[in-house]
Structures are given as structure tokens and as C-alpha cells.
Amino acid sequence: MAGAGALPLLLLLAGGVRGPRVRGKGGSWGVPAAPSPGEPCPEPTIAPSYYTTSDAVIASESVFVVEISLVCKNGAQNVALYADVNGKQFPVTRGQDVGRYQVSWSLEHRQAQSGTYEVKFFDEESYSALRKAQRNNEDVSRIRPLFTVNVDHRGAWNGPWVSTEVVAAAIGLVVYYLAFSTKSSIQA
């Protein structure tokens, strides 16, 4: 019988525990990453890029992905970041490359209106202040994010107004009518 300390390991091996993973030396996924305190990032310089769903016909939800390249004045490479979009917070994942971060979220197509979405990024200190203000029902607008990225979403295309099958059926009916009326006029 396994001891109490072996249970978390058994759950991990059985796939019962999910969490952030780190890349091992052999290229396979290793054990979950242990949380570590992030470094402060004074005067951040960012290079953002983003993707949003543009075709609602092939996707069930609109997806937003924001990637940033972050360089801190003090050279910090272990910055813990959190994102806030319209009052919802999301964890920001660190990429394999140094200084690369990504956050993503999804909304139903009806909720994902076209327009500009403001993504506020917080470090650990400002994020904990944000969460504390939310718990105490205080004004969260007074808490300054580390930086902000604006994501322009043009909306998702829902397909043509008339489906291809309807157009093909209408053309078939017109051709049948023309052929039948021409046959009738030739026989008359």
C-alpha cells in the first residue's frame, strides 16, 4: 500500500492532476512547474501581437490570443503577469523564449462584439491590489496596470446571407422551368 505522500504522484502519473507544465531536456513535458515569485519589471518595453477569430462558420466561439515580447529595464526575466479584460482576470503564460508571454480567452460569437478590447496587464503586486479592491468592493480603476494592449476585433463572419444549397436549388428550379416551358412550346 502506498503512503500518503505517494498519492499526489500517483494522481499526476494517472493524469488526474492538470497544471502548468515545463519542458524537459528530452523535449517531452515534465512535471508541473512550481510557482515562484515573479520579479518586478520597472519601465517595461513591449512588442504586442494578437489574433482574433474572423470566421464564425467554422468556429463555435470567438477566440482572442495576445502575445507580447517583454523587456524590463532591470533585465528581469521571471515576471509573473496577469491580464484583465472587461473585469475578468486571466493568467498569462510564459513562453519558451525569454521574455515571451501569451494570454487567451474566448467568448460566444454574440458576446464578442466588434470593437477594441483593452487588455490590462498586471504584475504580482498590482494584481494582488486589484483582487483586494474587488473583494472589498472598492474602485478598481485607481489601480494602474503595468501596461495595456488594445486588441482590435473586427467581428466574426457568419457566412453568406443565403446558403449555397438554396442558391443551387433555385438555379435548378429555374433551369427545370425553362426546359419544361421550352419543351411545351415546341410540342404545341
Commentary on this structure:
The protein is of the alpha+beta class. It is 23% helix and 32% strand. It contains 3 helices and 10 strands; from the N terminus they run αβββββββββαβα. The protein has helices spanning 7-13, 124-135, 164-187; strands at residues 21-23, 29-32, 45-52, 61-71, 82-85, 88-91, 93-94, 100-108, 115-122, 147-153. The radius of gyration is 27 Å and the shape is elongated. The protein starts with 6 loop residues before the first helix and ends with a helix. 15% of the residues are buried.
Summarize the structure.
With 188 residues, the chain is an alpha+beta fold. The protein contains 3 helices and 10 strands.
Number of helices: 3
User: Strand count, sense and closure of the main sheet?
Assistant: 4 strands, antiparallel
Number of strands: 10
Q: What string, H for helix and E for strand, traces the elements in order?
A: HEEEEEEEEEHEH
**Which percent band covers the strand fraction?**
25-35%
What are the low-pLDDT stretches, counting only 5+ consecutive residues below 50?
1-35
For the largest sheet, list the strands in their spatial order. 3-4-8-7
The SS-based structural class is alpha+beta
What is the molecular shape? elongated
Distance between the termini: 95 Å
Helix content: 10-25%
Report the C-alpha radius of gyration, rounded.
27 Å
Output mean pLDDT. 78
